[in-house]
Amino acid sequence: MRRLLSKAVVIAATRDDEYPWRQNAHYILLILSFFLFLCFILGNYWLFSVHLPDFIPPFQQPRDYCDKILYLFAVGVHVLSHIVLVLLVLCSGCIYVWFRWRSVVDED
Predict the structure, then answer these.
(1) What does pTM read for this prediction?
(2) Domain spans, the chain
(3) By the 8 A CB rule, do 3 and 29 touch?
(4) For 53, phi and psi rounded to 5 degrees?
């Protein structure tokens, strides 16, 4: 969705556009990014606040249990997203330091 909206911003080069919503697409991207960030934070809270729930359905309320495969899949996806986020931050930091170092070396 974000990629589609970013393409809409690039296409909107003229002011006489028949789609006036393209001029406000950066606000839509901002709202969508905030919503996804909020979902990520709330998903972390909801998933990791219940550490190893009951995987066996109780006799009185059979709907109040967690499926083991679904829970482990959700934990795996969240852990993988955290790993990707950390790698992205580390690689961005390394690239920044490398470019700063190259600019200092080029000045000398």
Answers:
(1) 0.61
(2) 2-107
(3) no
(4) -70, 175
